[in-house]
Design brief:
Radius of gyration: 23 Å
Distance between the termini: 22 Å
Strand order of the largest sheet: 3-2-1-4-10
Structural class: alpha/beta
Largest sheet: 5 strands, mixed
Number of helices: 17
Number of strands: 17
Strand content: 15-25%
């Protein structure tokens, strides 16, 4: 099996003329990364630059980021191709309406995973009609995923939910991804009421099958419409080689999936866990290529996310800045203090709470003392540890005769065989080499009954290239995979 390179520095570029340039328009900064693609399929990293995002005209920030690269001695070829991702608009607020709660929730998470949507609520048919109406009125989603019924199965729930959408006069785009036998009637009702919608194949045509790609593409199309309108990205989109602005989280996931799975021409590295900790959320993504070969009977009667090749969880209350107070709320301030190690004078619980409160109010703040750096690292350890345990499965504590399980039976996503963990996020950019390893080692150090790997190898995206790798993987998968395997480093 192929493994990652543990080299400590990038090879010097043989040429300083870029023919690929990838932008990431974020809420705060616009980044640009330059590459040269040479034959035969050799991708060379030339430089990266960033500039504050200019919301009044994003092309100003884009050009400033490009000039920052030019200032490093990089020139741009006449056939330069541009690509871009964006996270400045945030994710589309999505509500999923379906029949069975667990099935709808799983399908909604899978559909939204790389499409630029945030699942705000999942509503099943067993919820009171008044409650369903109230959720749509309060959340006011940008998009509604209307699921329900396998093909030829339930229709009643779909038609009732469609009537609710009409009754609340929703302005959301409705992705009609339900039982195909009910779609024509739903479409007719929406046409009559003036509800915007798009029809796609059923996301769950059979009880053990998910067909998420068409719905995901429909949501991605809405994401593009939103960001070009809200952020003025239409002119940037016009110069892109593929005319597509990809959601930044989706691009990062594509890169990790490629690294795990590989291509027809070369092997990937196998099972992979991606730890992505930011100011607002801590995201865990796992890609397990071996699950693609499971037979239907091995997947279980009802499809579940735990048996999918690619699976992501997002912890919205575990961020290092915008949602910093959620971390001591989840584990207690004493746990943060223990992870900090000895401090003089000793850190108090009140000091931890004051610090996290300050981070939420001033998210651009960078720690300016050893005590604050120690708290930042301890908060990262706790956030990652909690997020990992919520993502991974566990060993059952008790027997369940109904399900035919004995105590100790693995339940949920089994990550014990994963050997590679890839980490991204500002905390890993700002901390020193050994400290990065320490943060992850602590987070993975005591899995307990969680189905987490023991002593995996840790790698880091030092140069913040994963977003670019994800975009380019759609067009140049083999050069991108070779680059990832050679340049992601252990420290």
């Amino acid at each position: 099996m192929s493994t990652l390179n543990s080299a400590h520095s990038l090879e010097p570029a043989k040429a300083k003329e870029a023919n690929l340039l990838v932008y990431d328009v974020g809420s705060t900064y616009t980044k640009a990364t330059a590459f040269r693609l040479e034959e035969p399929a050799n991708l060379i990293f030339l430089g990266r630059g960033q500039s504050p995002t200019t919301l009044e005209d994003v092309l100003l920030g884009v050009e400033n980021a490009r000039q920052a690269i030019a200032g490093q001695g990089v020139s741009f070829s006449n056939d330069l191709r541009h690509y871009a991702t964006c996270s400045a608009a945030g994710g589309l607020r999505m509500v999923a309406l379906g029949y069975m709660p667990r099935v709808t929730a799983k399908a909604a998470k899978e559909v939204s995973m790389t499409a630029g949507a945030r699942v705000m609520e999942v509503i099943s048919y067993d919820e009171p009609v008044e409650y369903r109406e109230e959720v749509l009125q309060e959340i006011r989603p940008d998009i509604i995923l209307l699921a329900g019924g396998t093909d030829g199965g339930d229709r009643e729930s779909v038609l009732e939910n469609a009537e609710i959408i009409v009754r609340v006069k929703s302005k959301a785009m409705v992705v009609v991804a339900c039982n195909k036998d009910a779609q024509a009637e739903v479409a007719a009702r929406f046409d009559e009421a003036g509800i915007p919608y798009v029809r796609v194949p059923n996301i769950m045509p059979t009880i053990h099958e998910l067909n998420i790609k068409p719905a995901r593409e429909a949501i991605h199309a809405q994401f593009i419409k939103q960001i070009t309108k809200a952020k003025g990205l239409d002119r940037l989109q016009a110069i892109l080689a593929d005319k597509t602005v990809m959601p930044t989280p989706g691009a990062v996931l594509l890169a990790s999936e490629l690294l795990a799975k590989g291509t027809y021409e070369q092997e990937g590295i196998g099972g992979l866990i991606l730890v992505d900790i930011g100011g607002a959320t801590t995201d865990i993504h796992s890609a397990l290529p071996e699950l693609e070969n499971l037979k239907l009977e091995e997947r279980g009667l009802v499809i579940n996310n735990e048996k999918q090749f690619s699976y992501r969880t997002v912890e919205g209350n575990l961020g290092l800045r915008v949602s910093a107070t959620g971390i001591p709320e989840a584990v207690g301030p004493l746990a943060i203090i223990r992870d900090m190690g000895p401090q003089e004078p000793p850190v108090t619980p009140e000091e931890v709470l004051d610090y996290t409160g300050k981070m939420e109010k001033e998210p651009a703040t960078i720690p300016d003392s050893p005590r604050e750096w120690a708290m930042d690292k301890a908060l990262a350890m706790a956030a990652i540890a909690v997020a990992l345990r919520r993502h991974a499965g566990h060993l059952s504590k008790e027997a369940d005769p109904v399900l035919g399980m004995v105590a100790g039976t693995p339940v949920g996503r089994d990550l014990r065989a994963v050997r590679h963990v890839l980490a991204v996020g500002g905390i890993f950019y700002y901390t020193k080499a050994g400290e990065r390893q320490e943060i992850l080692a602590k987070a993975f150090g005591d899995p307990g009954i969680s189905l987490l790997p023991a002593n995996p190898d840790f790698y880091f995206d030092h140069d913040y290239l994963l977003y670019a790798m994800g975009v380019l993987s759609r067009h140049f998968p083999d050069p991108v995979l070779s680059y990832l395997k050679n340049h992601l480093r252990e420290d």
